[in-house]
Design brief:
single chain, two-stranded antiparallel ribbon, alpha+beta, about 80 residues, about 20% helix, Alpha-Beta Plaits
């Protein structure tokens, strides 16, 4: 399944290159970091999360999807790359 509610044209430059990203709609709620702390970090100074590590393998892919689904403002995207 592809999620494209987030806007890839507004993704933060800190995102690790790959299919998952956080865009500028992020409200720094920590939901993604709580769900997948090895894959998301918070930029405290700018007030937003970003993808720090793309998934490697099915288990990590599932965590990324869970984090995306937990985002209350749909700021996490999967552009399928």
């Amino acid at each position: 399944m592809r999620y494209d509610l987030a806007d890839r044209n507004e993704k933060w430059p800190q995102n690790k290159t790959g299919k998952y990203y956080v865009d500028q709609a992020c409200i720094a709620c920590d939901a993604c970091i709580t769900t997948a702390p090895d894959h998301y970090l918070m930029n405290d100074e700018a007030g937003h999360a970003y993808v720090s590590k793309q998934p490697e393998g099915p288990a990590e892919e599932e965590l990324m999807k869970e984090a995306m689904e937990s985002c209350p403002v749909e700021a996490i995207g999967d552009d399928g790359e």
